[in-house]
Design brief:
The structure holds two protein chains of two kinds. Helices cover about 80% and strands about 0% of the residues of chain A. Chain A is mainly α. Chain A is elongated. Chain B has a single domain, classed as P-loop containing nucleotide triphosphate hydrolases (Rossmann fold). In chain B, strands 6-7-8-3-9-10 form a six-stranded mixed β-sheet, with helices on both faces. In chain B, strands 2-1-4-5 form a four-stranded antiparallel β-sheet, covered by helices on one side. Classes of the chains: A mainly alpha, B alpha/beta. Chains A and B meet through helix 3 of A and helix 9 and helix 11 of B.
Chain lengths: ~230, ~260
């Protein structure tokens, strides 16, 4: 436990900021999970709920930015406190984009569900499972200040990229074969692309967690040692 | 708290001022404990730490101002450009010509602006008008005051604003063309705008002088210093590049102090 700040308001503001980021992460992750469920279970109402709830995530992004700015202006944080504010603001931006991807998936799920059942939809599941795992670890790396976990995401995201290429090839082949469901397969291609992007965004969050915990900037580095 | 000599960081400029295993005592009371520091030329080095941590004592040792206090003694050494300040051949008067000083409370003399700037030249018996005029203009330009006072050089210094009086004191301190400028909380008595003017001036002056500044203002240290030393209870806890100190200090005590978590 860190020594309390001399200004109690400051500790309060910092813990509120952290709590809001974690709450936003939970909502974004929940949206993604429901979007995938809407697709697999052919549930347009659930998809509608995801689309509607994206507003909450947008609100949280604005709130986190506002809180972060307020902390910078009022308290001039340095060292760990400064890195917490900067990484929180950057992470909220990545989380907002993840929720946007969940919304895109939900919209496509509605369109696919309007047509007869498509067996190949289940091919999405392992991609989602890995993307969600990466996202969960990215959030844990931030909340537990675990640079090692945060730095591990970049390499693990490569597996998601590989699965993305594989799924793309499969769906592309189905379109070429003229199975008559080209539009749905096109939606699936864009859904796996969204999941692949979630992996990239989780990697970004992992890098922000590394910055928070270890004050290292791993972005665009070939040497990713801590 | 481990305070080994590893606090001395490798310098990328010359180690112009070297503080070597330096300890300082007011009578029986030890105020500085075995400080090692290499201060490079033409950079701004900030000394930070809570009141009573020894930062002003350390600063005042750099031009032997503390010699004026009764019952003091020191151990270790301080060298400027390789020469020990305590070398018997060093005269304190000539040392202070090499090391100018600016204090917290601006303290112009009850004289004109002109006479304030050339005070030390007058004391040294210099009277050639062209030399004095040249010194006044050069010093006031360097302290960013010339344009504001060039038409009233013979008015009283007390007619200037606080910020201008402090810049006049800086002009006075650099009139002798010292190599080093020591500043003990030079903005403590100034408003935010006057403070920023002095900070801007500090960044300009470092091209000509090596500057060591004591400050209680963390933002000031981040804005205008290249290196920061954190002192606590007379010991040098951490000394590093300023951005390193304020982004990711290596000692928990430093982080606690600069983040306001100091108990």
């Amino acid at each position: 436990m860190q020594t309390p700040h001399i200004l109690r308001d400051f500790d309060q503001a910092i813990s509120t900021l952290r709590a809001e980021v974690i709450s936003m992460a939970a909502k974004s992750r929940h949206n993604l999970e429901r979007a995938i469920r809407a697709l697999l279970e052919r549930n347009p109402e659930l998809a509608n709920a995801v689309i509607a709830d994206d507003d909450e995530v947008d609100d949280l992004e604005r709130r986190i930015d506002h809180l972060g700015m307020e902390i910078l202006v009022r308290f001039h944080p340095v060292a760990t406190d400064l890195r917490l504010v900067v990484s929180s603001m950057k992470i909220s931006m990545n989380l907002e984009r993840i929720s946007d991807h969940a919304t895109n998936i939900a919209k496509r799920a509605k369109k696919i569900s309007a047509n007869p059942e498509l067996q190949d939809v289940t091919l999405i599941e392992p991609l989602y499972a890995l993307a969600d795992h990466l996202l969960l670890d990215a959030i844990s790396a931030y909340s537990d200040r675990n640079a090692t976990l945060g730095a591990s995401l970049h390499a693990r995201d490569k597996e998601l990229d590989r699965m993305h290429h594989e799924a793309n090839a499969t769906f592309g082949k189905r379109i070429e074969q003229g199975a008559g469901r080209s539009e749905d397969y096109l939606h699936l291609i864009l859904i796996v692309r969204s999941l692949e992007r979630v992996g990239d965004l989780a990697t970004n969050i992992g890098e922000d967690a590394v910055f928070l915990d270890a004050a290292k900037d791993l972005r665009h580095e070939s040497n990713r040692e801590l | 708290m481990s305070l080994s000599s590893s606090n001395t960081i490798a310098s990328d400029a010359s180690d112009f001022i070297r503080v070597d295993d330096f300890s300082f005592y007011y009578g029986a009371k030890q105020a500085i404990f075995n400080v090692d520091m290499a201060i490079p030329a033409n950079q701004v080095t900030a000394l930070i730490g809570p009141s009573g941590c020894g930062k002003s004592t350390l600063l005042r040792n750099l031009n032997r101002m503390n010699d004026l206090v009764e019952g003091v003694h020191h151990e270790g050494d301080i060298r400027i450009g390789g020469t020990s300040l305590y070398d018997p051949s060093v005269e304190v008067i000539s040392l202070r010509k090499r090391v100018g000083m600016v204090f917290q409370k601006y303290n112009p003399f009850a004289k004109s602006i002109y006479e304030n700037v050339i005070f030390s030249l007058r004391v040294a018996g210099r009277s050639k008008k062209s030399e004095l005029d040249e010194t006044v203009e050069r010093s006031l330009r360097a302290s960013a005051l010339w344009d504001e006072v060039k038409d009233r050089l013979h008015d009283s210094a007390f007619g200037l604003s606080g910020g201008q009086q402090q810049r006049l004191c800086i002009a006075r301190a650099i009139a002798n063309q010292p190599e080093i400028l020591l500043m003990d909380e030079p903005c403590a008595a100034l408003d935010p705008v006057a403070t920023l003017r002095i900070e801007e001036l500090i960044l300009k002056l470092k091209e000509q002088f090596t500057i060591v500044i004591v400050t209680h203002n963390m933002e000031q240290a981040t804005r205008c210093s290249d290196r920061t030393a954190f002192l606590y209870m007379g010991k040098l806890v951490e000394y590093d590049r300023t951005m390193q100190i304020f982004e990711n200090p290596s000692k928990p005590e430093t982080e606690a102090y600069i983040s306001g978590r100091f108990s």
